[in-house]
Every structure is written in C-alpha cells, then in structure tokens.
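General statements about sequence and structure are easier to judge against a single worked case. Part of our work consisted of pairing the sequence of a single chain with a tokenised description of its backbone. The amino acid sequence and the backbone structure tokens for this protein are reproduced below.

***
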Amino acid sequence: MPDLNAYLRSMGVAWFISYSYYLRVNRRHTNWHNVGDVDSRISTYESGNRYYRQMLDIVGGKDFNRLARNGLGLTVQELSDMFTTLRVEDSTLT
C-alpha cells in the first residue's frame, strides 16, 4: 500500500474533503476549484482513489482546527460537516 499520508499531503486534506464531497454528494460544490494546481491534485486523487476509505480513516484522525487556514474559503465547521456527510455516504455503500 502506498503512503496515504503522502497522497493527502500532496492534495491537502481540506481539498480532499472538498473534492470528495463534490464527486460523491453535491456536484454544485466547487470550492475545491479555488486553488492552484487543480489538475495535479485531481491526478493524485485519481491515482489513490482505490484507497479512498483508508484515506477517510486517516482524515478522521486529523485535528480539523488545523484546516482553518485553507485556500478553499471553507470554515472548519463546513469541512467537518462535509466529512461527516462523506462518512455517512460511505457507510451506506458497504
């Protein structure tokens, strides 16, 4: 298994949450697009997509207060809410 923390560092945890939310919950959510190097981040996301659930587990162990300074324009509460929705959505697929 690859270093999933490296994948998350490359994309950014807030970006991972935002892009996952866009793909899996709400296609109108576009905050993930508010940063540079979007194509590189999407490529990293896609190459690690088979480990999505494991990355969600890693993100769940993170201190969300550290996500306050993100370039996406999202608050810690918004990111936390999106993450919770992703977890619920993921659990319904199993």
Notes: The chain has one domain: 4-92. The mean pLDDT is 94. Residues 4-92 form one domain. The radius of gyration is 12 Å.
